[in-house]
């Protein structure tokens, strides 16, 4: 079984078939607390990401029940870099919106 560590980005595939990437904030017996989940979708140009939660505050930990997970995988370096860039862009966009309000 794969060891899941805090402050590491993983790819999760749920038993429902959905796949997403997230940074782990905490791991306990029944769940994994994650930050900034991005759903994986396929486009004509290849895999792409979308916000994993539309209404949720992605910067705060979310609880992922371990019983909902089918697979956990390490992510390739270029995928992790793309994920981190996407999160940074989303955070910058949120800051801009706060400043204009």
Largest sheet: 6 strands, antiparallel
Ends apart, CA distance between termini: 47 Å
List the secondary-structure elements in sequence, H or E. Answer: EEEEEEH
Give the overall average pLDDT: 87
* Helical segment count: 1
**β-strand amount:** 35-45%
**What's the shape?**
globular
Output the radius of gyration. Answer: 14 Å
Structural class: alpha+beta
Total beta strands: 6
Uncertain residue ranges: none
| Residues in helix, % | 10-25%
Can you describe this structure?
This protein is α+β, with helices and mostly antiparallel strands and about 100 residues long. Helix content is about 25%, strand content about 45%. It has 1 helix and 6 strands. Strands 1, 2, 3, 4, 5 and 6 form a 6-stranded antiparallel sheet that branches. β3 (about 30-45) and β4 (about 45-50) form a beta hairpin. The longest helix has 24 residues, at about 75-100. The N and C termini lie far apart (about 45 Å). The mean pLDDT is about 85.
Offer a few descriptive terms:
101 residues, 6-stranded antiparallel sheet, 1 helix
Task: Explain briefly what this protein structure is.
With 101 residues, the chain is an alpha+beta fold.
Topology:
Layout: E1 9-14, E2 19-27, E3 31-43, E4 46-51, E5 62-65, E6 69-74, H1 77-100
Antiparallel strand pairs: 1-2, 1-6, 2-3, 3-4, 3-5
